[in-house]
Write a structure and sequence with these properties.
By secondary structure, this protein is of the alpha+beta class. Helix 5 packs antiparallel against helix 6 and helix 7 packs antiparallel against helix 8. The two termini are 31 Å apart.
Length: 451
């Protein structure tokens, strides 16, 4: 049985603050009966308001949860409470054969995994009509090309008018042209235009940021006009930026990269009722960064559980790109809790460059792909400090890196409290001008930071 899960890791799985609070309230030994464990499974029964207790079980290999309670949240408060009990009071779990209700669930998970593996290895029996595919692709290309020309004229017109009046314009200005790009089947351009509406109203420095974003879009349009003359990886990048989807089957047919991947950070953003999760990985052997992008609608859980601060033995396949970062999991084995020493410290210490080196890495990546929106920075021996109203990171050479200007005050103070004024290892997303911290290692412990 794994015994090194930490409460912070468990609570990071909570779908919302209320679930975390309720799960914490139930993580008391006397509220549970029949606590047991066998290999990678743990289970228990918690008496609720009904006649029968809720049966809760966890497969720690992912980890995956199942509970008989009616909650639509995932994991529910019972799953969180059981996991917290394991993290804090593992001696309360008796090693024993799993009861039937646990064994049946574990068997069904094994059977699903086998079927999925079999499905992936089987050749496709039917392929789409290539002529019909080519006809659809040509029709879409025609729409996209028309949309690109329309957007080019719109951007040139906006630049001729100047940017000074943009903050006085309503959001409808951006929504209208974004809707036109949706009609042109270029959703990637539509998203960038909607993001621009927020940039214009972002406060100090909005003008430079707006001009930079508009320049990126214009460069994208220029690239699309001459796409046939560009290298294949740049062509793939341009199509991705436009919003030309590529199926997971096509991606998974690419070269797999096996490694022990350290989950160094995670961020979940809400877009209306859609949850978007970015999970950042670091290959301990290959020193390669990767990003897994997952979506979940409403109260639906994400398809896979990825716990920051743990290691995942897996094969990843990267999406074709001018600077590959986004990847899919092709195969995975058990998640591994943190070892006693800080996760990956020994393995990645040599790979963690100085602050200067990391920013230089970003410059190289940006030169290869000028449309990068987030870049993973893993920084060693940096100290958080406050300068006026801004939070900064300073390395041993005295160089500083600004943290996100919209960083919530409590996030900065939390970071300072964790460091205690001493150097720490930090991971975050760099957007070219500011860093959003997502996690830190302090001595032997990993801490995820609220984003």
């Amino acid at each position: 049985m794994q015994t090194q899960w930490t409460p912070e890791q468990v609570l990071a799985l909570a779908p919302d603050a209320a679930s975390a609070k309720n799960g914490r309230g139930l993580a008391i030994g006397h509220k549970w009966s029949s606590l047991g464990t066998h290999q990678s499974a743990v289970w228990g029964e918690c008496q609720g308001s009904g006649k029968n207790p809720y049966r809760t079980q966890i497969d720690l290999s992912e980890p995956a949860f199942r509970c008989s309670c009616p909650s639509r949240k995932f994991p529910c408060k019972h799953g969180l409470a059981l996991f917290l009990l394991l993290a804090e009071q593992s001696s309360g779990f008796a090693e024993q054969e799993p009861p039937d209700w646990v064994a049946e669930w574990l068997l069904s998970r094994t059977q699903r995994s086998q079927k999925q593996a079999q499905k992936e290895t089987q050749p496709k029996e039917q392929t789409a009509d290539p002529q019909a595919q080519a006809k659809r692709a040509a029709a879409r290309q025609q729409k996209v090309s028309a949309g690109i020309q329309e957007l080019r004229l719109w951007l040139e017109d906006r630049i001729r008018q100047g940017l000074a009046t943009l903050p006085q314009e309503s959001y409808q200005l951006w929504d209208t042209v974004a809707a036109r790009m949706v009609d042109a089947q270029a959703p990637g351009l539509a998203r960038r235009l909607r993001d621009l509406a927020g940039t214009v109203h972002s406060g100090a420095g909005w003008c430079d940021a707006t001009l930079a974003s508009m320049s990126q879009i214009y460069l994208l349009l220029e690239g699309c006009d001459r796409i046939e003359t560009l290298p294949p990886e740049v062509q793939a990048e341009l199509r991705t930026q436009i919003g030309w989807a590529i199926s997971q089957e096509e991606v998974l047919a690419g070269k797999a990269h096996a490694d022990l991947w350290l989950i160094v950070g995670q961020r979940i953003q809400q877009e209306d009722r859609l949850k978007v999760r970015r999970t950042w990985l670091y290959g301990l052997e290959s020193s390669t960064s990767a990003m897994l992008l997952d979506f979940a609608h409403g109260q639906q859980p994400f398809e896979q559980t990825l716990l920051p601060g743990t290691c995942l033995e897996a094969e990843l396949v990267f999406y074709p790109s001018a600077y590959p970062l986004r990847a899919l999991v092709k195969t995975r084995r058990e998640s591994v809790p943190l070892s006693k020493s800080p996760p990956g410290y020994a393995g990645i210490e040599d790979a963690i460059a100085s602050l200067t080196g990391q920013v230089a890495s970003y410059s190289q990546a940006y030169a290869a792909c000028p449309w990068l929106e987030q870049f993973p920075l893993l920084l060693q021996a940096v100290v958080p400090l406050r300068d006026g109203e801004r939070w900064l990171l300073r390395d041993a050479q005295g160089l500083v890196l600004p943290l996100l200007s919209r960083l919530k005050p409590q996030q900065g103070w939390q970071l300072l409290a964790l460091s205690g004024g001493h150097p720490l290892t930090l991971f975050g997303e760099w957007n070219g001008t500011e860093l959003l911290p997502l996690s830190v290692w302090v001595e032997e412990a990993f801490y995820g930071l609220a984003s």
